[in-house]
Design a protein that fits this description.
Layout: E1 14-17, E2 28-34, E3 37-45, E4 48-53, E5 57-62, E6 67-71, H1 78-96, E7 100-109, E8 112-117, H2 124-133, E9 137-140, E10 143-149, E11 152-157, E12 161-164, H3 166-172, E13 179-181, E14 189-192, E15 203-204, E16 207-211, E17 221-225, H4 228-237, H5 247-263, E18 266-270, H6 278-291, E19 303-305
Parallel strand pairs: 1-6, 8-16, 16-18
Antiparallel strand pairs: 2-3, 3-4, 4-5, 5-6, 7-8, 7-9, 7-10, 10-11, 11-15, 12-14, 13-14, 17-18, 17-19
Length: about 325
């Protein structure tokens, strides 16, 4: 399903569309907001959960039976339903089942694999697209499943595609027409990509880059070692959760994030938003990644590239 390369039960999540409607008497215990607007609400119903995307769709999640129900006779278009399922519902269900699902793009750069983590609008997709244009493989645009072991940290990609605003699409891939709408509430366009040569398989994570606030950037590209506390904060803030009232689940989620912090070299990254300097940005990231070691006993290098960059807009 979501994590196409897994060999566990999470691969077998059943998705049904039925005329079952959401019960009237539910306690909507948590709301996710975009500014003042509620974009997602959660209600517990016995051992199950309801997720409501106001004005779009309701979903019934049944963790014990590994089932998701698209409820009611919704008129929401297929692109939007697919987006809600793949980018919101399934990551939250997998997180509830014990996976660490992180809001990140994943790119193979040479022989190394990097994750770029940050909030929506910070530029993960545009950065992945710039790397793709230079011949690097985009493994996932929005979400990865992380798991740690004796050998380090592995990531499992979701699906290979890019979601870009029209200005970013035109700057990175001029004239590209093979796109489809992401969702009716988003101006982004989805650009399907060929499956990576390695297939949709787990890969070792060599480094993570936290896309920090570009307002803090000057005319340079800056990469610096991220303190463990900042890395853990970023993973907690940019990973998916379902039941925030589940104290045991919260403790386990924190432990999974802390385990990744101890396994993966992580760096902060800021850069001016200027497409004319994208080659410099890509080269700086590729050069820095080639110097990274996953041996925690070795020093982790900081990197700063200095160049004169005019301040023009690069879309998220």
């Amino acid at each position: 399903m979501l994590a196409a390369g897994t060999d566990d039960a999470h691969d077998r999540i059943q998705i049904d569309r039925v005329h079952q409607t959401c019960p009237d008497q539910l306690d909507w215990s948590h709301h996710w907001r975009d500014g003042a607007e509620v974009v997602l609400s959660l209600a517990r119903h016995g051992a199950d959960y309801w997720l409501r995307f106001p004005g779009l769709a309701d979903f019934l999640l049944q963790p014990h039976s590994l089932r998701v129900v698209v409820a009611g006779d919704t008129s929401t278009d297929p692109n939007t339903l697919e987006h809600l399922l793949v980018d919101q519902v399934l990551p939250r269900l997998l997180a509830h089942l014990g996976s660490l699902m992180v809001h990140a793009s994943a790119v193979q750069i040479g022989e190394h694999h990097a994750l770029f983590i940050g909030p929506s609008g910070r530029g993960k997709s545009t950065l992945a697209a710039l790397l793709k244009r230079r011949g690097h493989s985009v493994l996932s645009d929005d979400c990865v499943q992380l798991r740690t072991g004796a050998q380090g940290c592995e990531a499992l990609p979701t699906y290979p595609s890019l979601r870009l605003y029209a200005d970013s699409l035109e700057n990175v891939f001029p004239g590209e027409k093979a796109t489809s709408p992401v969702a009716r509430y988003s101006e982004k366009l989805r650009l399907a990509l060929e499956a990576p040569a390695m297939g949709m398989k787990a890969f070792a994570v060599d480094a993570m880059y936290l896309l920090e606030d570009p307002l803090h950037s000057d005319i340079d590209v800056h990469i610096w070692p991220s303190p463990p506390s900042r890395t853990c904060q970023a993973l907690l803030g940019h990973s998916f959760r379902l039941d925030l009232a589940d104290r045991d689940g919260n403790a386990a989620h924190f432990a999974r994030c802390a385990s990744v912090v101890n396994k993966v070299p992580t760096f902060g990254l800021v850069y001016p938003r200027d497409f004319s300097q994208s080659a410099k940005l890509v080269d700086t990231i590729a050069q820095h990644l080639s110097t990274v070691t996953t041996d925690a006993s070795q020093p982790r290098k900081a990197c700063t590239a200095t160049t004169t960059i005019p301040s023009t807009h690069m879309g998220p």
